[in-house]
Amino acid sequence: MGAFFFFIASFNQLINKKIDIFIKNSQKLDSALIEIVFQFQLYKKDHLYLNKQKGKWIMKIKALRLKKSLLFLSSLLPLALSFSSCGSSENQGTELNISQTQLEAVVQNYADLVLANYQDSYDEALNLEESVNLLLEFQNEENFNQTKTAWLAAREPYGQSEVYRFYNGPIDDPDTGPESLLNAWPLDEAYIDYVEGDANAGIINSLETAPIIDAATLISLNEGQGVESNVSVGYHAVEFLLWGQDLNTSPGEAGQRSYLDYFSEGAAPNPDRRKAYLNVATDLIPSQLEMLVHAWDEEGNNYREEFLAQDSLSAIQNILIGMGTLAVGELPSERIEVALLTGSQEDEHSCFSDNTHRDITLNLQGILNVWQGTYTRIDGSIVGDGNLGMKSLFDQVAPEKSQAMQDQLEAALLAVDQMNLAVEEGRPFDQQIINESDRANLQNLITALQNFGGELVLAASEGLDLNITTDL
Ligand SMILES: [Ca+2]
Ligand SMILES: [Ca+2]
User: Fold this and answer.
1) 236: CA distance to ligand 1 center in Å?
2) Helix H segments across 141-297?
3) How far is the centre of ligand 2, averaged over its atoms, from the C-alpha of 187 (Å)?
4) Block means of pLDDT (10 residues each) for the chain, length 472 residues?
5) Closest ligand to residue 352's CA
6) Is 100-187+293-464 in CATH node 1.20.1420.20?
7) Domain residue extents for the chain
8) Which of 24, 54, 120, 183 has CB atoms 3.0–4.6 Å from 157's, for a disulfide?
9) pTM to 2 decimals?
10) In this structure, which ligand is nearest to the CA of 426?
């Protein structure tokens, strides 16, 4: 068995001594460890992560909304948890119940999904760019609404692509990855434009911050002053420029920005700078996505070539890290549980447009795509081979775990259907997080996703002898 233990608990669970501990290995949990866990009570509202890597316990505590600020508590607490190695090398050298040819086909199939998914993301982003061009040329409400529709459409393929993150692939390569320029979030809207109570807020209204609004300026201002919520570009910046703040004056309502904000007839100051901002920020989205298409296309001399050339099991390890991290951390924890804990739309993914239910649905669809080995393109055509997905792989090497994962995905799909039904009934995600029965459903979704991820980690260890880390 791979030596990997995973444990996650929110502060509330800790204080109630209702700790969910997902220990699938048979390793005894030392009482000293429990004691240390309870010392975390002083870190209110924080999430706690505990896992075991290479025979050593590592604890991390993550402050809400400080995604990149993992604090290694081993420096604060005497974590001398030198548990004896629990046979992590047991499987080393064991022959896998699968051929090299099959493994290569699975990896190739995945690369085909990624490329098609990024191509669709790029095409839809170009449509958005064209809609903005039309809006800025012919200024009317119809074109404004069409632009919002194009933004929503652009999110459909991109949301599915997030399962290709978290393993330092092209999207989040530490040096060149455009993720923070595309999908940075949460976003402090007052960094960009006026907000309720401050008519002069933001880059748009500050000649001092940005004498000229161009691509270089907006990119340089992204995550300005080292503040992660100082987001100047990407889908969510454009979302705010189109919808404006969601003041929820009625429960079913999203942001109500007027198209007149872009024109001199409107009440908002600096319409020309706002136009320039919308234009530049929108253009940047397809230009970032184009890089991703080139990284994965079949032209060679790119990431795809390296990805296919490496050892197939290393490639599969990356595929599973992407899927596992989205399923265990990013989607249930960052994107759902944080909003549930705070009850605030500030922690809602697409808070201005109230499109968060689609973000969640599409992230799960992305996981399903990689699981099944197919991706349905925007034009309805299907890319990939259903016999070459992760499910087929695990059916062969860890059939019981494979079935357990399938069951958890189906439970997650049921919860997602219920979430979407509630949206149709007039309760967008920002209302569901404050409605008791909807909250219970979202909690079920979190549990199903995390159980899926937990089974994935174990299946990879059992069937493929791969260690999958799912830390954000
Ligand atoms: Ca709303
Ligand atoms: Ca909202």
Assistant:
1) 15
2) 141-161, 179-182, 215-221, 235-243, 271-296
3) 13
4) 32 34 35 43 40 40 32 31 34 70 97 98 98 95 97 98 98 96 96 97 97 98 94 98 96 96 90 97 98 98 98 98 97 96 94 98 98 98 98 97 98 98 98 97 98 97 96 88
5) 2
6) yes
7) 6-75, 100-187+293-464
8) 120
9) 0.82
10) 1
